Amino acid sequence: MSDERPDGAAAEGTDPAEVAPDGWPVALRGVTESVVTTLGPNDRWNVAALGLHAPDSSEGVVTARTYGRTRTWRNFAERGGGVVQFTVDPRTFVDAALTVREVDEPVLPGADAWVEVRAERVSAETEGDTTIRTWELKPVEAEVVAERVPTVNRGFGAVVDATVAASRLDVPAFDTDELVERLEYFADVVERCGGPAEREAFARIDEATGWRERLGGT
Amino acid sequence: MSDERPDGAAAEGTDPAEVAPDGWPVALRGVTESVVTTLGPNDRWNVAALGLHAPDSSEGVVTARTYGRTRTWRNFAERGGGVVQFTVDPRTFVDAALTVREVDEPVLPGADAWVEVRAERVSAETEGDTTIRTWELKPVEAEVVAERVPTVNRGFGAVVDATVAASRLDVPAFDTDELVERLEYFADVVERCGGPAEREAFARIDEATGWRERLGGT
User: Fold this and answer.
1) What's the domain of life for this entry (chains A, B) (predicted)?
2) Which of B15, B58, B66, B177 gives the lowest tally of CB atoms within 10 Å of its CB?
3) Are residues B35 and B92 in contact, defined by beta-carbon separation less than 8 angstroms?
């Protein structure tokens, strides 16, 4: 609490490492949360969450993982790619991660940017009964739709993390009590800091998972 | 997990309620996390975290709270205002919330937008030994410096929430074990999803609070 930091540009500002990989519409670092649409056998676009792993340099290749036999896995394998999009609408993240959503057009109305990618499977590992596949995503075409001043809302972050916790509720490797405790915390943050979109998004988490019924222990 | 949602624009997109309050450079909803600089008696600008409470309509007034006898409280009272800024550099949030930082210029190099505000105290309540004051913030002058496609990084959200938990470690009303457990979770998220800026920011939380020494219970 008493740490004094000298004035200076080193304390902040755009990281020099943070440049967009070649052909991508945005800079990536660590894991960037995106939404991907992939064309299914019914010729509709399936909407799912996809974490993008940044390459080490701007010439490197972006990767992503699929966990088990999901629609994204199937459509990547059968169609060879999809459309990755960047949005900050919390409802879109919840629908993508926790519900089955199919649309007629590959680019969602809330996307601030999108990039069509070819997906090539590069490795697979097994964890329990689940095959985790790693895909290289190579950009084909990209567009920036809207730019804005980004703002920080803790309710938004709570919704995103809550979708992760909620999607693990029935995975044996995770402790349900711990996940429910975490969901309670995120619900409280949304209540205190979220806007209308975050409240609506969290209500969809409640609806899709019924986690509140597990309150008070198993 | 089986909730099917019909295709449609109602599922997402910019919320109609989300417009910038008159004179503000960005739209606000719920509580938006900002950084404020206020001029101290030494004629340097103190950098602190400030949660902005959105008004009910675009004609309403933005409010913020100060907790106890902080530098922001003192400088708001003595100087009548400060400069609110919007940034997504996680290091800036940590420095603002957990360290004493003073700079020569009111606008930080990492600010994407700023607004000079007049601060008027409108109410006060007492919680334990702490006087919580509510201030109305009225915009004087504002500038948008940089716009971009916002991206979502769970590590960033974890840093912001961790600064909140870390700042409560020595507040008697909060359970230390619970805060430390939460910090462990955030540290893990930063490790797995953060970029270089998030890792650096989290190292500053470690350094400023020494919370890891409390691991394993009190």
Assistant:
1) Archaea
2) B177
3) yes
